[in-house]
Specification:
A three-stranded antiparallel sheet has the order 3-5-4. A two-stranded antiparallel sheet has the order 1-2. Helix 2 packs across helix 4 (83-95), helix 2 (55-67) crosses helix 5 (117-137) and helix 3 crosses helix 4. It is mainly alpha-helical. It has helices spanning 25-49, 55-67, 72-79, 83-95, 117-137, 142-155, and strands at 4-8, 16-20, 70-71, 99-103, 111-115.
Length: 195
């Protein structure tokens, strides 16, 4: 059966149209998810550029907000990159006064990364812009948001251990994006989208 086309907005490889095969819902779901991720990534990159941050720098700051002081190897693991790449990212953040390297309290040989008050303020402001952009992309009513969130949690079972109940700010109980999905950011937007 020939595939129909459905418009998909955004930039990147899924800009323009998403192929729809009415006999294969999985393929259509995957194409829509890739198109949405592409649009969210573009919005994320635009939002962090307003703060003169690269996406890896923004992700590092966002991780540190919710993970607390961490060794560089943990940050490298969270970003999915080599420790040598994280050194460059952290060097640039440190020069801007956003992070500090400090000796670990348990093992003085290990250097931990700590967000400064300036780094925290920049990260919070940046995340408000990221979420506002994502909210504009994903215009859903309250019921639709609840349904989508339930489906995403079901599909992302490995991440469930990292998600916190609203109000639970304990270390290690946050989503990889750092905000509890469904929580309200300081700007009032619903969190959960982001990179």
């Amino acid at each position: 059966m020939p595939a129909a086309d459905r418009p998909a907005t955004g930039r990147g490889p899924y800009r323009g149209r998403v192929s729809v095969d009415r006999e294969d819902r999985t393929e259509e779901i995957v194409e829509h998810l890739f198109a949405l991720v592409d649009r969210l990534r573009f919005g994320f990159e635009a939002a962090v550029a307003r703060f003169e941050l690269s996406p890896p720098q923004a992700k590092a700051l966002h991780y540190l907000v919710h993970a607390g002081p961490v060794p560089m190897r943990e940050l490298a693991s969270s970003l999915g990159c080599d420790a040598s790449n994280v050194t460059g990212i952290v060097d640039r953040l440190e020069r801007r006064g956003y992070v500090e390297r400090r000796p670990d309290e348990r093992d003085r040989r290990v250097r931990t990364l700590v967000l400064t008050s300036t780094g925290l303020a920049v990260t919070e402001a940046m995340w408000i812009h990221v979420c506002a952009g994502a909210t504009a992309l994903v215009e859903l009513g309250d019921n639709e948001q609840a349904i989508l969130l339930a489906l995403l949690r079901r599909l992302d079972r490995p991440a469930l251990g990292r998600c916190a109940a609203p109000g639970d700010l304990s270390r290690g109980d946050r989503s990889p994006g750092g905000m509890t999905p469904g929580a309200r950011s300081p700007g009032g937007s619903v969190t959960g989208a982001g990179d």
